[in-house]
Amino acid sequence: LFCGTAGEYAVASGLLFWGYNVAVMSVDKGVDLVCVKENKYFHVQVKTTTVSDNADTYSFKINKAIFQTNNNSDTFYVFVMR
User: Which end of the chain has fewer CB within 10 Å, C or N?
Assistant: First the structure.
């Protein structure tokens, strides 16, 4: 939970520096952040992962049903690798 939340706040911080107004969703149902800039709204789903010491790859899990529910031109995925 800490890693995922840290990734969400890192992405939110970057968006704030770029002039977006960002709201962090209290409950994750496929949208972590709601953002607005110049009266245009969009959603962001953040996926965060770390690599273990004995591996050289990153992997992410995306729930198919949630992806299909939120799959539109206003939803973006951001992949954070640490």
Answer: N
